[in-house]
Amino acid sequence: MSARILVAAHNHPALHPGGTEIFAHDLFRAYQRAGCEAIFLGATNQIHREARPGTSFQGIGPAGDELLLWSGHFDRFFMSQVDLYGIVPDLEELLRDFRPDVVHIHHLLLLGAEFPHIVRRTLPDCRIVMTLHDYYPICHHDGLMVRTSGKELCHKASADRCHACFKDIPLDRFTLREQHLKALLRTVDRFVSPSRFLRQRFIEWGLAAELISVIPNGIPVRAAPARPDRNGGGRPIFGYFGNLNPWKGVPVLLEAARQLIADGCEFELRVHGGAPFQSEGFLDEIARLFGETAPIVQQRGPYRREDITELVAAVDCTIVPSVWWENAPLVVGEAQALGKPVIASNIGGMAEMVEDGVNGLTVSPGDPRALASAMRRIIDDPDLQRDLTVNARKPDDIDTTARRYLDLIETIEPARIEAA
Q1: Pair (41, 65) in one structural domain
Q2: Do the domain assignments include residue 228?
């Protein structure tokens, strides 16, 4: 399929290397390799770029096929684009100039939930696809579906439950928020979920099941040297990769490591990632835990995306201890692609990617003792590590994923005049 595709996300991986931005950008390049003419549009704000008077757009990258949309005026509660006299006309002009056959949306933050409607109004025949990466439309708590008090997992959103998390926001505003977002999302032709779990969450929220396809996230193919086998012994090396924040389970991981050190276990833990925009209390907590577990636990700091393969290849086992319903963490795919076992929380999309005792180990979220027990199994049993490695489930490469998206897009009827 040869098409013009506008790929839109809520940031650019060069500015904010989150999983959604990275995957969206990888897919954008894969579309180009498949023969499509593609542009990447990443929305940003004053955290990463200052506004430039007279235009909403800024360039990024050397090729001229990547743009930033400066969106400093945005209603996070309603996920609404409020700059009707600046951003909206500029978006309409971009759409008219590029005239994409397909707009592929990866997030509504900063872009605004009105974006699909703007596309439909400007280009009635354009096909609109949206990948659901998290639960932002469902949950005002940063799309986590975790209660604001006690970090309790939330199984279902409702106006009453959401108001209980945010008592300063009137209950009826949560009802209006849901109606507002569902009305605007009706303009989307097809949704894609990288996991069955997240698909089911959105069906329960009210999206039509027949409109949501499951396409797992693919990753670029990259060769990397493998770490030598432990040969029946030796000290295993565990690795953590990602931003350091409470929801990724970093304190749980560090506490598990502290328990293993106290028990005299021999291992190494490399923690890769920065802690941007975190509270002082959280930073103090992890600083204390890093101090108590050094030098066995090494805080290695932020890393570049192009280094991830080499870093993952250098460890024996990757740990993903998230305490929220992760959808499809890219690091699990990176590890499995290199034949590395994964220890992950047994919730959300992680439970679909890691089967306990087959290609990794799973543990209850937020339980340092359970995580320490799983790590101890790897430490004490090199044969188990080898067995889990043999059963690693390699994800699709990103070019295969792009073809699956293009096949889906071809099934969409382009004429939607009635919705314009």
Answers
A1: yes
A2: no
DSSP assignment string, 354-409:
--BTTTEEEE-TT-HHHHHHHHHHHHH-HHHHHHHHHT--PPPBHHHHHHHHHHHH
Domain boundaries, position 180: 4-218+398-419
Is the residue at 223 inside a domain? no
The whole-angstrom separation of Cα 82 and Cα 239 is 42
Torsion angle, alpha carbons of 313, 214, 27, 4, to 10: 170
Residue 61 has a pLDDT of 83
At 164, which CATH number? 3.40.50.2000
What span, in angstroms and rounded, lies between the C-alpha atoms of 100 and 389? 43
Alpha-carbon distance of 30 to 394, in angstroms, equals: 18
User: What pLDDT is attached to residue 212?
Assistant: 98
Instruction: List the beta bridge partners of residue 194.
Output: none
Mark the ranges of the chain whose per-residue pLDDT is less than 70.
Answer: 1, 223-233, 414-420
Same domain, 406 and 383: no
Containing 420, the helix (H) or strand (E) segment is none
Q: Where are the beta strands (DSSP E) in 165-315?
A: 190-193, 212-214, 237-241, 268-272, 297-301
What's the pLDDT tens digit per position in 333-387?
999 999 999 999 999 999 999 999 999 999 999 999 999 999 999 999 999 999 9
Nearest CA to 159 out of 147, 173, 146, 180 is that of: 173
